[in-house]
Every structure is written in C-alpha cells, then in structure tokens.
UniProtKB/TrEMBL annotation, chains A, B, C:
Source organism per UniProt: Reyranella soli
Protein name: Uncharacterized protein
Gene3D superfamilies assigned to the protein according to its UniProt record, in alphabetical order: Hotdog Thioesterase
Superkingdom of this protein's organism: Bacteria
A GO term, aspect molecular function: lyase activity
Amino acid sequence: MSKTSTGNFFEDFRVGQEFRHATPRTLTEADAALNVGLYGSRFAINSSDEFARSIGLLRAPLDDLLVFHVVIGKTVNDISLNAVANLGYAEFRWGVPVYPGDTVQSKSTVLGLRENSNKASGVVWVRSTGTNQKGEMVLDYVRWVMVHKRDPQAAVGAPVVPKTAAAVAPADLIVPEGLKLGGYDDVVAGSPHRWEDYEPGERIDHVSGITLEDSDHMFSTRLYQNTARVHFDAFAGKNTRFGRRLAYGGHVISLARALSFNGLANGFRLAAINAGSHVGPTFGGDTIYAWSEVLEKAPLPGRADLGALRMRLIAAKDFPCDSFPGKHADGKYHPAVTLDLDYWLLMPRRA
Amino acid sequence: MSKTSTGNFFEDFRVGQEFRHATPRTLTEADAALNVGLYGSRFAINSSDEFARSIGLLRAPLDDLLVFHVVIGKTVNDISLNAVANLGYAEFRWGVPVYPGDTVQSKSTVLGLRENSNKASGVVWVRSTGTNQKGEMVLDYVRWVMVHKRDPQAAVGAPVVPKTAAAVAPADLIVPEGLKLGGYDDVVAGSPHRWEDYEPGERIDHVSGITLEDSDHMFSTRLYQNTARVHFDAFAGKNTRFGRRLAYGGHVISLARALSFNGLANGFRLAAINAGSHVGPTFGGDTIYAWSEVLEKAPLPGRADLGALRMRLIAAKDFPCDSFPGKHADGKYHPAVTLDLDYWLLMPRRA
Amino acid sequence: MSKTSTGNFFEDFRVGQEFRHATPRTLTEADAALNVGLYGSRFAINSSDEFARSIGLLRAPLDDLLVFHVVIGKTVNDISLNAVANLGYAEFRWGVPVYPGDTVQSKSTVLGLRENSNKASGVVWVRSTGTNQKGEMVLDYVRWVMVHKRDPQAAVGAPVVPKTAAAVAPADLIVPEGLKLGGYDDVVAGSPHRWEDYEPGERIDHVSGITLEDSDHMFSTRLYQNTARVHFDAFAGKNTRFGRRLAYGGHVISLARALSFNGLANGFRLAAINAGSHVGPTFGGDTIYAWSEVLEKAPLPGRADLGALRMRLIAAKDFPCDSFPGKHADGKYHPAVTLDLDYWLLMPRRA
C-alpha cells in the first residue's frame, strides 16, 4: 500500500464527509513580521501592539488575510490537490482575532457534489472552519472547487447542490469582543477619513504598484503549508498551459489589500467576503496595482463607534489603476484584471 | 475629495510644521532574525541574548541599522514621497537600544526650506525622531532632501537654511545605560582586536561580497513599511532613468555593515552618523563589497571600558575592495563605489 | 597586522586544537517560521505548540535540521572557509531539543590531519558540538573536509586518521526526555502509517518538487551565519568551475526532508546521520524532488511507544523520483541525483 498521498479525486468525496486537516500551526510574531515583509501592509492594528491596545484588543492581532491563507492552506491536501479550478466562496466570515501564540487548525465538511456532464470532473462544496486552540472559530466559509475524477468511468451519486447566501448580511458580521474605538487615533492609523466619509459608488485608485517575484510567492505558499504544487514547482510548471509557475492567488489578495491602505487606511478589519474571483493568472515579475469601489454602507447593530463598508477590490497587473479597469458591459474583464473581490470592511465612525 | 495620498510637494511644507508619521511598529524577535537573514550580520550583541546580558543589557537589542530603517521608513510618506534626491544627514545619533516588544514610531519637524533656482523643486530640512512606547528617543537626526514642486509657479516663502554640526562630537555620543564591558568575550564576539589596536589611517578590506537580488531588497523595503515606490515597482521602474527598480539604499548600508564584521567584529554598536552619501545606484544582481578606514579615535568621557572609532565605510559593487576604491583626487568616485558613510562606532577597550 | 580573517589553511591546524566558534545565536519563533517559509515543512511537532505538548514536550522544538544548519554554520569560518570539498560525517547525533529562546553555540576539536599526496591540500577531521545556554549538547558529530594549503611547501606533521563508527547504533540514539507518544494523533500529524508499517527495502516516492531560487538559498546561508562565500557571491561565482553561485547543500537537505513528509509524516524526529553526500551541485532555479528507502528497522531499548527507522533519502533535481534514481551498479549516480543521505528517524509505534 502506498504511503504517499496523491489527494482526493471527485469520486472519493461523500456528502457529509468530515476532514480534520493535518498540521496545526502556532502562529507567532514572526508571521506578523513576514506578512509585513511579503506584502508591505501598513495597517496600524496589525503593526503596533500599542495601537491595538488603544482600541481594546490584547495586542496586535495577526492580519486577517494571513488567517485565511493558513486556514485554506491546510485544506488543500484533502480538498483541492486535484482541483481544476477554484470556483467561489460564500458565507465567508472572520471570527475571533488570532494573536501570536495561538494555534490554528482547520476542518471541513462536504456539503455538496455535482459531477460535470463530461464526467472528467465535478464540483465539490465544502464548509471549512479554522479554529484556535480554545476551539473558537477564527474563520468559516463555504468554498466550491472543480476537482478531477481519477477515473471518468467511476460511478458517482446524485447531485447535491447546497444553497448559499448571496452575500453576508451586515447583522451577521462579527465584531471582535472588547473592541472600543473611542480612542482611535486617525493620525497614527494614517488617514482622516472615517466611515461617514465614504459613499456607495465612490472609486479609489490605490496608486502604487508592487512587483512580486517567484521567490516571494513561493515563500508565502510554503509558509502557509499550502501543497498546491502549481505554485512552487517550476519544472512541472513548464508542462502546464501557462508554461510556468502560477503565483498563489492569495498572495495577490494580500498585495491588493496592502495597497488599499492608501485610501482605506482606517479599514482596520476584514469582516467577511461575499464573493471573489481570481480573474486571471499572476506570475513572478508581474506588478500588482489595485483600486476599490464602495458598494454599500451599513451601520452595525448596537455600535455607534464603527460601521461596515461593502467594498469591491480589483487588482490588475502591469496596469496602473487610475482608469479603474474592471468588467466591461459585455461581461468580460479588462485583460489586466487578476482579482475581483467583494468584501465587508469595518471602519471607525466619528464620535 | 480624494482619499488617496500622493505625498507632500515642496510648496506644501512650512518651517516649524510637525508630522506624527503613521503606523507605529512593534519590533520583535522576527525582525532580529530577518535582519540576519537579509544581510548575514554576525555581531554577537544582536545575535545572542546571553552575550548581550554578559555586557549589561536586558537581552539582544535589535540591530542599530534596523532601527534606522524603520524610523526613516515611516517618514517617507510625509516627507520624501516626491523626492528628487536624498542630500544628507547630520546630528544623527542613536539613543536607547530597541528590544523585541518595543513599539517604534517617528515624528518630524521641518527645520528649513529653500527653493531651487529652477523653481521645479526645493530642499527640505527635517529633524526626525524615533521613539519607543515609553517616549524615549531611539534615533534622532537631521535630514535634507530635494523635493519636487507640484506647481513650479507656486509661490514659496523666503529661504530658511538651518545650521547643522559638521560631525557629532565624541562627548555627544550616547552609550546605552547599564552597558559594562568588563566581561566582554572576544572569542565569542569573533575578534581579538580592540579599540587600542586601531589607528587613524588604517584601512581594512572586508574581503567577502554579498549579492542582493530584487526579491531581497524589495522585501526589506516592504518590511520597513517604506513607501518609496522606486524600490518595488518594476513596471514603473521601466520608465525611470535607470530603466529598472532601484535597491533601497539602506539595504546596501546594512550589507556593508554586515560585511564589516570581518575586521571590525568588536565594533558592537553604531553611535552616530556624521555624513553619508549613496554615491551610485544599486540594482538586483549586484554584488556588494566593502572596506573601511579609521578616521579618528576618541576616548569617551568617564569610560575606561570602551572608546569610539570614527570610521569611513565604503561599499562598491561588482568590485572586490582589496584596492580600496574611493574618491579620486579630482573629487570623483571610483565608478564601482555605491556608498560612502562616515560614522562613529563603539568598541571595547582593553582592561 | 591584518585584522581581516581569511580562515585557516591546512597547515594552520594541529591535532587536539580547540575552537570556540564566534557568534552564538538565540533561536526564536522567527527561525521556526522561516524554516517553514523556506522549505515548506509540515511536521506537526515543529509547527504546533499544542501538538508538541501532547507528546510531552515543552512546546514546538525547532526543526532538527535547522539546529544542524546553525551549528555547522558557526564552524565554517574557522574550519572550512578554505575547503576544497566536504567529505563526510560520522557519529552524528542530535541531543536535547532546541526551543525558541535557547542560545546555540558551537565548538570543535581537531581529531585528525592527513596531507594529500599532491601537497596542495589535506584532510581535516573535527568533532563539532553544538550546545545550548545550559551547556547541554544539542548536536554532536565528526566531519571531515579537504582544506587547501596556503603554501604547498609548508611542512606538516605525520598523518593522524581517527577511527569513526560506520553507523550510529540504535542503542546510541537519543530520545528527548519527557517524550510520551501515548496521545500521538495520527490525523493531526498527517499519516496513518506508524513504525510497524514500514519494512526494509520499501521505497517511497515523495511526489512533489520544490524550486529553489538564488534569493532563497542565499537567505538561508545568511540566516545560519554561514560564511562560505561560494553560496552568496555571484560576482566571484562567475570565476568558479560552475560559473555561478552554488546553493548551500543544507538547503537541499531541508527541502528533501520537507518533501519526505508525504510518505513519512510520522517521522517526527531526526536522531542521527550515518553518512551523507552532496552528490551533485544545486543552483538557483533547480527543482528538487526526493524519494526514500527504508534501510533498517530498530526497536529502541525500553520504549514501546516509538521505534527507529534507518532511512536513505535521495534528492534529485529537475527529475521526478517515481523511477527512484539512485546509484547504478557501476557505483555512479544517476546524473540528476544531488543528495544521498543515510539517517535514523524516530517514529511512533502502535499502542
């Protein structure tokens, strides 16, 4: 019997099947520093213990997207090692903040399965949950992914397609316990603009670009213990349709989020993702630019000190975003676009 | 109103204007390790908690140049985002050591302004100060930088040119409190040579070279949350006069300092910079070599256990330094030279 | 007198000579995270404090190979700066685990010397020992290395060739104090296969490959404060027989070990190295694959909860290992092979 895992194929999954994913990881101050070094993030909440304490937290929590990278990275070996494509996310919410010293692990439950008509692959829906060492939820989401069949002839069950919410409702957003924004210091945070200053339809060009090298995105993929070889095997990459290694899509999300500091510096916490698409591939040497659009504004129940902004974040490669490249009327994206993300951001309100 | 910062232009500054720069940063053990990984530094004081305690410190302090990188990195967005060139430093002194867990922030005051005769730019003098969470000074310096005008027609005030000291006097050098070198272990530190063994005029070739890659210098620029895009935007870099990304000059200083271990291993602490010039640009793929010259020796008031050496540190690229490339009689530098730094170094004396 | 070290040459060594190597290093959580980021290691023991506590340890110990990199890195400046080639290791055993906060230093004793017949070089045998701040042994080994003579005419003493054991006996393997595997969780560790499931002669292809870039291996060499310039000086590298920088061989060992997780996930601890050879050079851009063979199985005296596997680990570059490339009948290696390592691995037994 082979002791080597080659991952699960479509016909290996069963609705209701549960996975406890391997290799929990104790995140530390080092992950915080590496997150700054890899992406250049400048949000004060993740950079300064003093700032974090001034808004009621224990110390600087780890970057929200870092938590995402670690949680999803652990699921790859069981869920998406044989993926054709990542199709979508829903009901994606962050829970309690993760602090240095916390140990994060992931588990998943199969919610749905539907074979494709060509019988070569099928769609797998899972709910994945990241927890800390106390069992508290740090991230929870539904993801669906197209997975190869090992054997196109293998018989599979009747399709089960789960129903997921089109977006996370503002009332369902989770505000970290103890958070108090009365003493929030705009100057230290880097912007005078608060929740009241943003309006739906407003577009913000984040101006700067950051180039990512192969060495950078491979480092992040390894750091998150993500085993999707397409990201770090240049030899095998030569025989793929791209002819080379593909940057981990999460690397681009983190770069775009870091760039969005210029215009959204007070958007201190990601609360939820409504939808997201890696529109195009990214490779070593590409320079990532980004722009944002305010989609919606929502007050939060019982909170006078902060509100939520529903944002669209677009990243483009080798294309500055002062012309706001996006989706054309025909439904096609501008060719430079690599990411289209719809998410909820928490921001302080004026006293 | 745009929420995006494009930085200050020359006509935006006023003498006496004060800036509290955004995004304080809690430095940690991770920054210490990354400093070793990025530059290969081998000074025992920054590498070993045990060694640091043996000379009276709490634990291994963070590398002095790392403190510089972080303090100056925070000033970029307000002071030098639209810089034409970095012109000089003066009265540049390190204060209390920075330990893992300390939170560093930066502030600046505009000391002087002088428009250039072409009216396209002007020189801005600032005093910048880095402090820890207790408000103690960790680094303090005057810097002057040439900054573009947004509008050449904009009227500006009469020139104010501050007077700065030509060099830091030995009596003004700050020795960390509690430092006691009675138990200083030369073998562990890596050299038998102490303050008494160096003489003005002595030249030291540091022998080894270290190649820096684009991935390396971009990582350090992001780690220090330095927003000078010229360092990490390869796409925009194509349209600059160099046709490519320019390595952050501080990266070269740290490499040269790390190389200087071979010959100056007991130079455990930088106390001050008298002057410094990034003589030439450095790019990914360049190999940095370095050599030093002893400029001056100074005992320190009330200290029998340590003295100061005023050193000149020259870095050259793709050019080993056994021939000591420097400034020619005509005032021009050898074409390989990229850095010329004049600084004060603390070193133990013999008992 | 020159203050610059150019390392020791063959005629500088004396049998019985002792070295306390410079620059002890306090290893931290950052080194743990960097080890994951550089190599993609997924062993739960080094990744999760919670997992490590569940098997009786204080917290997640640092990766065994990281300890090796740091201990040997410190010896380079005194022992092998002028090496022609690394020839072998013997009696190579890990001692107490190294935890974040421990300070590691190295010392060496010259065991033997034998000039080569061409008088241009000779073989130096040293016993090197890494210790923590309490003086406890963390790693101990004999290494022999061929070192240039400075002057071929220099007279040297009669040859002294030490006797070393051909392999480490199972009874001599060191099991970390307090280790208790009763609660070992296979699912969290990532494999259902325990000691009983492996048989001598069994071969395991570790499937995935990881590409290493120049930026990656230079970072690791600097991080370990290893001064072997062949690894990080691209300018000088042009004039070597390879015409370029050579990756640090330890980088390849760590990559191969990380890859071996797929098939050996429960091999949680390296106990000893019996022999090892860097069969071929590795360069930036190479993709490393690996496979393993079980050489021997040994129970451990007094331990029903764990046993030892003697493993052979082969790494190959730009060559997937499903065909198990190794040594041919004529004693020559398959041209893709870069590493052949014979080591002892600890693995839990079934209750």
